[in-house]
């Protein structure tokens, strides 16, 4: 059975480098034998996380839809930009809302339970977004995911992509292949237990 992997970027910006990284990851995972679902967070708009709002109106339907998607996949690959050395607010808000879900109607729903996660980053600078991944890793560990150690960080992202959307640099291509293979391997191992 093919591992099911969900892929998304932590930015909705038109032409976002993180979206391009997510596209490369999607193609790489598929080539390595995974069943891949690529989504865009822009299709799941959410209000700012607010417990008063949650108490008054409940968890937003788009958060529940995302929670169902998370739960239906063996692994998740997140391609994140770095905002001021940390997590973009869109991504943090999404993680926070989904963490509030414990039920889907009458059925229990634990979107992060046993989820294997791979992280990628990108930026125009020399650090390639890795400072933000430190914070993202911490948040995702706190909600109960298992984050693999392999990661792919794309520096100088404005010049990292070829016309066909692949990476110019062979080293970055190999890093992405390692991340994707490790994610597939870890999800297969988790499913076999």
UniProtKB/TrEMBL annotation:
GO terms for cellular component: cytosol. Transmembrane segments: none annotated. GO terms for molecular function: FMN binding; oxidoreductase activity. It comes from the Bacteria. Residues 3-158 form the NADPH-dependent FMN reductase-like domain. This is FMN reductase. It comes from Phyllobacterium myrsinacearum.
């Amino acid at each position: 059975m093919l591992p099911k992997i969900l892929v998304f970027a932590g930015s909705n910006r038109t032409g976002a480098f993180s979206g391009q990284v997510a596209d490369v990851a999607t193609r790489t995972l598929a080539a390595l034998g995974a069943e891949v679902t690529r989504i865009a967070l822009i299709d799941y708009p959410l209000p700012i996380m607010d417990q008063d709002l949650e108490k008054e109106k409940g968890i937003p339907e788009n958060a529940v839809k995302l929670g169902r998607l998370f739960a239906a996949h063996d692994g998740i690959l997140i391609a994140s930009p770095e905002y001021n050395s940390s997590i973009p607010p869109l991504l943090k808000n999404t993680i926070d809302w989904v963490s509030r879900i414990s039920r889907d109607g009458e059925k229990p729903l634990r979107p992060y339970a046993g989820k294997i996660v791979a992280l990628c980053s990108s930026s125009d600078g020399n650090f390639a977004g890795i400072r933000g991944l430190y914070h993202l890793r911490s948040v995702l560990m706190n909600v109960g995911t298992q984050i693999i150690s392999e990661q792919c960080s794309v520096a100088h992202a404005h010049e990292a992509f070829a016309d066909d959307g692949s990476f110019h640099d062979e080293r970055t291509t190999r890093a992405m292949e390692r991340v994707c293979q490790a994610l597939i391997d870890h999800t297969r191992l988790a499913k076999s237990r």
